[in-house]
Amino acid sequence: MNTEGPKQLPIPPDFPVEWGSNEEQLFWEIDRVHFMGPIPLLCQDFAVLLNDGFAQAAEDFAMPIRWKKKFIHNFDYTAVVPAVPLEDMEAQTMRSMEKFGPGMFEIQQKWEQTFLPEVKEKLKFWESFDLKAADMPALLDHFNTTASHYVRLWHIHFAAVFPLYFTISQFDEFYTDLFGKENALKVYHLLQGFDNKTLEADRTLWTLSQKALANPELKNLFETKTPSDIIKALKNNEMDQEFSKDFDAFMEEYGQRANGWVLHEISWVEDPTPAIQTLKEYVQEPPADPIEEMKVLVEERDKLIAETREAIQSYPQPVKDEFEAMLPAAQFATVLSEDHGYWIDFRSNYKIRSVIMELGRRFCEAGLLDSPQDIFHVSLDQIKQIAQQWPANAEQKLGQAEKASFEKSLQITPPPMVGSLPPGPPPGDPITRTFGKFFGMPVSDETPTPDTKLIQGHPGSSGTIRGTAKVILSLKDAEKLHEGDILVTATTAPPWTPLFATAAAVVTDAGGVLCHCAVVAREYGIPAVVGTMFATSVIQDGQMVEVDGNTGQVTIV
Amino acid sequence: MNITWLGENACSNIEISGGKAANLSLLAEQFPVPSGFCVTTGAFSEAISDGLKFDQATLPKQLMDEIANAYQQLEKQCKSQPLRVAVRSSAADEDGALASFAGQHDTFLNVVGIDSVYEAVVKCWASAFTDQAIAYRQAQGYEVDQVHIGVLIQEMVPADMSFVMFSVNPLTQIANEMMINVSWGLGESVVSGEVTPDVFVIEKSTGQLLNETVSVKQQMTIQSDDGTKLVPVPRLLQQRPSLNADQIKKVFELAKSLEQQMGWPVDIEGAFHQDELYLLQCRPITTLNQKG
Questions:
Q1: Please, what CATH class does the domain formed by B3-155 belong to?
Q2: What's residue B93's pLDDT?
Q3: Do B222 and A317 make contact, defined as CB atoms within 8 angstroms?
Q4: Cβ contacts (< 8 Å) between B237 and chain A: which residues?
Q5: Which CATH superfamily is domain A454-556 in?
Q6: What CATH number belongs to B161-284?
């Protein structure tokens, strides 16, 4: 029996925490796969709505856990809390497994016939609403519906991602149970080479860059002008008509996304710099033809599948049946692990952001804000309240203190975990293992020293390569990445992946073998080490590093 | 006569083919017994008197040709070449109602090619002369120098699941209960106790499932290139019941009709391959009524 209480984690002096009742006993972590920095007040309110969606999906799957949110100095901390009394946890996990088991084979049909049509219907709801023309009562009504749609979309999101990641995780374990753990990433080669929305977007950019290369005037423009000059040329209709049209079509289809997952982040439609920056990069150092690259992946995949079938030839039929059933399910799940993000995390978020920004513009015009973007420092309730009593009295600017607090937080490095260490290791059930593979279990308890030369992370994508490290924490700094460099970053959202065509390898602080970064690195066939926790703080810009995607090690050489 | 086929009268004679082969031969027509032939007890005695040294080199030439012919014929019958076969010893005093001799004589699974068949036949013969086998015979009161041993060669069933079924519960001795022990893969790991099998108890009079114990089946025996190997069971299948309701019913019905046919409680070994049921062995339960 452990007579000591739970072990309290140290709290930095510049990071005081006010605990609610029992909160201090919980283990709080920042989700570093998705949230790199602090998030403003309105996004915190939306994060609570997102968490409602999580709870509803968790209910669907009879999950034994829920998420609890706490915002400390504007950082989003999550604690995993039991959904049932502790003594029922094991039985609840069994009940949940009964949902997850069939869920593996139902997800494709569910996504294609139920979830995606509903997402598209919601997108239509936003597209068919004239934001500019609506009067305030109509806009408020639209905003209220938007908030409830947000909950439903994240319900769908988690109802899709729970089984999809579970499927890949189960397939991974099935394969390694059969063939051993020596090459932990081999199984993922059976899932590679299928197109998804992320690759589609990146390939469309590449095609645009090829068109620019074929036109001397455009080539010169992309080689010599700054992104902002190029954007100006596009806006002023000074560019090749056909290219402009193609670029607009690209933005319409793929530009409805921000560089991260939080609603206050500006989308590519609003500021196309990341797309233009990538085009510049692609024109200056043209990457390999992605269509040809994919053919290689497909060939490798088909060969490996044939070898696997041969290897299990003499296994009992149930093993072969399970392999044949799980393979297409895991392949579909791999595609959906990117595509759900296109539809929900980015496209839907963009529409929601547009509604918020329209309110921001009106609040700004009414003198309530300094800029429309400042609406993100006003709470959901306050926005509703003011819109309700429109026209508003502009005596005092809104969200001033909240904005100051947010900006102060931008200067803070938050502790990745606060509260109390969990009493024991995480449960070993397949559902918990799936979460671990997505978020990345901590690789070590040691904090790095200035002499640290070897950084251990999780294997993300196979291969070993040396290159110059470029530590890039924001897509704004992407221009320093050149062909053959190693991209070192906190985490990567899909809008970052065009950089994978240029980078020789990628190293992240956050994530596990199933995180977006690892999934897409495998599709680019570049080595990846994920979930190092400290890479961005240990590795200096310009250092020569060796990345071993198979062992998950990064060495400063 | 050196060779006799399952289903033939001679093969059903325990003196000619040994207990295991004779029992199966009797059942071959009515029940799903994999095709095969038997190298007779007579062939063994003759080889011994011809100076057999328990190696392939001293196998009589005539016998080798006959085994090769029969193997070829079996290949044709099973439409498979080279045919994978199971080679089992079948002693005349084995599989009797008094002592089962279970595990005393060797079984060689997944034997491929005629040279391997010769080797397996010789090893089956030799197995009757291990110290252990002799001691067992003595303890059971059999004549040591009067060993009659046949060798049964059958098409290999690449089992998906293998089971042992007792038509009377051997643990409780309750006559109205049948018990199935079953696990993934070939039967070796079930028979040898290397895995803890799933256990199903069925009421004989109604066919109703009385009890189901699904075990964590961590290992299974599968065919290797030239024999068998023990491999881990993927976690996904470890706790899945290795028989479904339909399959349990099929095994139950098989055991019930075998018991009726034989007139005594049966201890059977069987397997499923691609949902087809195969009967691999049938003998009396030898441990009953010992409580007096």
A1: alpha beta
A2: 64
A3: no
A4: 318-319, 322
A5: Phosphohistidine domain (3.50.30.10)
A6: 3.30.470.20
